[in-house]
Amino acid sequence: MHLFGKRKPRNSKFNQAPFRKSRFSQRRLQLLQREEKQYILRHHKS
């Protein structure tokens, strides 16, 4: 029981969520930043 209680939060909280989220959000952040750059560049040019 002690082991399970200690092991579960670590698994679900620290392993699953951040991994899934950070990987996805990182890629999305890069895309968003790239789009933002292009948008700003375009607007500054014209």
What's the count of strands?
0
What share of the residues lie within helices?
A: over 70%
Structural class: mainly alpha
Number of helices: 1
Average predicted local confidence, pLDDT: 71
- N→C terminal distance: 66 Å
N-to-C series of helices and strands: H
Instruction: Name the poorly predicted regions.
Output: none
Proportion of residues in β-strands:
under 5%
What does the radius of gyration come to? 19 Å
Taking the sheet with the most strands, its summary is: none
How would the global form be characterised?
rod-shaped
Task: Provide key terms for this protein.
46 residues, mainly alpha, 1 helix, 96% helix
What features would you describe in this structure?
The protein has 46 residues and is mostly helical. Helices cover 96% and strands 0% of the residues. The protein has one helix and no strands. It has one helix at 2-45.
Offer a concise description of the structure:
With 46 residues, the protein is an all-alpha fold. Helix content is 96%, strand content 0%.
Question: What does the secondary structure layout of this molecule look like, with pairings?
Answer:
Layout (H helix, E strand, L loop, with lengths): L1 H44 L1
